[in-house]
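pipeline/complex-builder :: batch 7 item 3
reading input block
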Amino acid sequence: GENVEQHPSTLSVQEGDSAVIKCTYSDSASNYFPWYKQELGKRPQLIIDIRSNVGEKKDQRIAVTLNKTAKHFSLHITETQPEDSAVYFCSHLADTPLVFGKGTRLSVIA
Amino acid sequence: DVKVTQSSRYLVKRTGEKVFLECVQDMDHENMFWYRQDPGLGLRLIYFSYDVKMKEKGDIPEGYSVSREKKERFSLILESASTNQTSMYLCASSWGQGEIDGYTFGSGTRLTVV
């Protein structure tokens, strides 16, 4: 499937600061962009998603932005808390199953 | 609560053994997927199925096969296990193509081949 580049691979922030994870894709047919959070030893779980007809979506402290022209989308976490520490995966869907980024390990330091 | 259940949390197998990883979902999803997760490589698609008795190769199908005899069950088969197949295996399922609410994942099977 089409690749998706995810950056950074690791991210450390102080509690209360913001965290941003960025992804770039190449398939212009991509129309659905979910983000997954995987806590240590647990399954990946969907935390937020965005569709191609929307530029931004918020859910409490989490937001996702999408720039279809530039083919990139980002996850923003504000007021980070220790429980936000996890691996985050971006993904996108076109005509094939979900393609995932390589993940970002976020550490929130209390 | 919707569920994707993988039969084993941990498995240790010997090189050359035939290995079966089982996945069952109770959501009446049409689509089921097998991914492999390795540090630094993310989730890579092995095989997927959009219907009973249907299967499609993903990005890394070599050394694997699958079986979907019933809608709720999707099995991953390692025909002759090798040490480079030591990994975390994740099963997932979805409505439609997954564009409604993404995929639901199982808890994973950590396979070690010795």
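note: The mean pLDDT of chain A is 94.
queue -> next item
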